[in-house]
Structure formats: C-alpha cells, structure tokens
Amino acid sequence: ADTTVVIIGAGPAGMSLANFLQRRGVSCVVLEMRDRAYVEGRQRAGVIDHRAGEIFAEFGLDGPVAAGGPVETLLEIRTDGVSRLLDVPALAGGRPSRLVPQQMLVQRLIGTFLDGGGDLRFGALDVTPHDLGGDRPRLTYLDADGGEHELSCDYVAGCDGFHGVSRRSIPEGELTTYSFDHGIGWYTVLADSPAPRYPLMAVSRHGFAAQFARGPRASRFYLQYRPGDDPRQWPDEDTWSELRLRLGDESLPAGAITGREVVEMRSFVAEPMSYGRMFLVGDAAHIITPMGAKGMNLAIADAYVLARAIIDGDGLGEYSATCLRRTWDYQEFSRWYTEMVHDAGDDSAAGPFRRRLALARLDRLFRSPPAAAAFADLMAGTEVSRAS
Ligand code: FAS
C-alpha cells in the first residue's frame, strides 16, 4: 500500500487523527478539497472540553494545540433577569474546558502535522473511494491542474464533514440514519463588543440569548429565532435592542458586527460509523446542536478511538459501537440542554407547561449538587470505555 491511512478532510477530525497517527509513526495522507486559507479560516466551535484536552495531552499536543486558550470559568445563567453562577469546572471535580476557537485549533494541527513532515494535499478534487469492502481500498482524486492520482491504503478515514463524499460512498441499505429538527433557529453574531465577565446564557419569555468571549474585545452572541424568519436581514439596531432585551442588560455596548450566521438546530446520526475498511469520523457521521459545545469535541473523540485502534492493531471492530455510545450520550445531553434554555423562553413554541418544566430543570442545577455534578460531568466530556 502507498500508505496505511488515507484521511479525507482536514478539519478538526481529520487533522486530529493525522497528528495522533503521525506521533505514533503510522503513515497517513490527508486529502483536502479546499485550499489552506479556507480550511484555516472557518470560525465555528470555540471550546475544547477537558476530555479533548486530555486526548491531546496523551500525544504531547496539549501545548502546541491548546496552549493559551483561557480556561473555562464560571458560567452565568440569567433567568428572567436573575443571575446565578455555576462553577462548572469545580462541579466536575476540577476538569476545566479551554476556549480555543476552531480555526486556531485547525491552524495549529495543520502546523504541527506539516512540521512533522506530514503529507497533506490541499485542492484534492473529486476524491473517490474504491474497493472499501476489500482489504486494499483505493482513493482516486484530481489535483488542481486536473492531474489524476491514485492512492492505495489499509484504511480510509472519512473526516469530510456532513456534506462529504465518505458517507455517500457507502452502498444503499448499509446505513441506518436518524435525523431530528429541533424547530429552533440560532442567529449567531460576531461583534466588536467587549467580552462578558463570564460566559452568559439568558433565559426569559423573550427567547434565548447568549454571549461568549471571542478574544478580549470581541463577543459571539446567539439569538434564538423562529425558523422561517431570516434575522440576517434585521437592521443592526434591532439586533442590539433584541440582545439588550433578552440579556437583560440595557447598557450592553453595540459594536461593529463582523460575522452573521444562522444555524437551524438539527441533529443527525448514521449507524454504523464504518463500512469495510472505511471509518466515518466527526460530522461525517453525526451532527449535534451547538448546545453544550460538543460537535468539535465529538470529532476529536472519534479520531482518538480510531487512532488508538489502528496504532494498537486492536479494536477496529468496536470503533463504531464505542463512538456511537458517546455520540448518543451527547445527543441526549444536547437535547436536554436545548430544551432547558429554549422551552423556558418561548411560550408560543413550547407551551406554558413545558416552560415550567424547563424552569424546574434549570432550578435543579442550582439546588441539587448531584444534578449540577451530572451536568458538569457532561460539559467536561465523559470518558467512554471501549464498547465490550
Ligand atoms: P468539518 O466539516 O469541520 O471538516 C470537513 C473537512 O472536509 C472540510 O475541511 C472540508 O473542506 C473537507 N471536505 C468535505 N468534503 C470533501 C471531499 N469530498 N473531499 C475532500 N475534502 C472534503 N461545534 C461545537 O463544538 N461548538 C460550537 O459552538 C459549534 N458551533 C457551530 C456553528 C456552526 C455555524 C456550524 C456549522 C457548526 C458548529 N459546530 C460547533 C460544529 C462544528 O464545529 C463541527 O462539529 C466540526 O467542524 C466537525 O469537524 P469535522 O468532522 O472535521 O468536519
């Protein structure tokens, strides 16, 4: 074989896997269809949970990758204007997460991989897997000049995200897929507005809103909106007045809005996460809402399970079951969290009974230490033993 593993996609999943394999002397080639600037510029997730931090540390990557990201501190939850603080790291027994923007993580992972002599090919077009059912899969692709290339390998890692080619290469009937539309839209705004003292989530009748730091002089805001609306058309002053209303902070300073995205909250899982010699990793296999900041962390955790199985030469048969156990655990957590902060806010959608349920769920976090510890444990990222 030309190489042991061909990795399709240079996002968090692909570049975490590439670095883990490289650090243990397993050869791999990464095929990425976009150029480096695009891949390193995509601003999405912002948190490496504690478990992901431990995984990077196991490969000596915590310094190069996670250094500098401020450690998570108190979480402020403002309910109908009343602020309460949760010391999530302490409730998790001293397991803090780190604030590392996704584009910084990917930049650093690409840097360490290339510094280590890694083979990462940008602009790889029309990547096509062949013979996945055999013991010598092949990948064909075109380079930017239209030149044809072929690579044979022992394993293929589909790290190409939700819209990638990997999952689509699995024959009809082999996969069972689960989709769920949460019926909630999030308008996410990047603005030059001073970072909040603590990560802030606000729950009120007006609807959910949140404010997180993105560097000392920038904030990322989230605003719940009813699907079908398009808040990107709102005039900026409407966005700011809506944020002030929902965050319960009339003095919130406006700033230049530098990024606008809408995310319709949906979840997706494909089972199993492997077919023959191909393994689906990260968003190629599952989509989770940003509630609880688990999307990127699931990608890193999947990459870890696959890397360990290939390095140890043992455990590939359990890869899918092990990753699905954590995936469904986090899907449930993310849905629980999404209901808690959204049902409490918006009578029309959820109805008054579910609003009361959500407020009770929220209140339990501040009243019951075991309930708070369970929440903090999931925020820190759970150790999932290999499926037996
Ligand atoms: P990615 O999609 O990141 O990477 C796939 C890579 O494969 C890309 O570089 C792509 O160019 C490449 N590719 C695709 N098709 C290919 C092909 N055919 N051939 C070759 N290459 C191909 N997660 C959180 O944890 N917290 C958040 O707050 C959060 N917010 C989000 C906000 C938005 C708007 C979105 C869209 C997502 C958010 N996520 C968040 C989830 C997000 O971070 C994903 O979980 C994460 O990018 C998953 O990483 P990968 O699985 O590597 O997939």
TrEMBL record:
InterPro entries attached to this UniProt entry = FAD-bd (IPR002938), FAD/NAD-bd_sf (IPR036188), RIFMO-like (IPR050641)
GO MF: FAD binding; oxidoreductase activity, acting on paired donors, with incorporation or reduction of molecular oxygen, NAD(P)H as one donor, and incorporation of one atom of oxygen
Any one Pfam family here would be: FAD_binding_3
Location of the FAD-binding domain: 2-311
SUPFAM superfamilies per UniProt:
FAD-linked reductases, C-terminal domain, FAD/NAD(P)-binding domain
Q: What keywords is this UniProt entry annotated with?
A: FAD, Flavoprotein, Monooxygenase, Oxidoreductase
Q: Which PANTHER family match?
A: P-HYDROXYBENZOATE HYDROXYLASE, TRK SYSTEM POTASSIUM UPTAKE PROTEIN
Per its UniProt record, what NCBIfam families does this chain match?
Answer: PRK08243.1
Q: What is this protein called?
A: p-hydroxybenzoate 3-monooxygenase
Which organism was this protein described from? Actinoplanes xinjiangensis
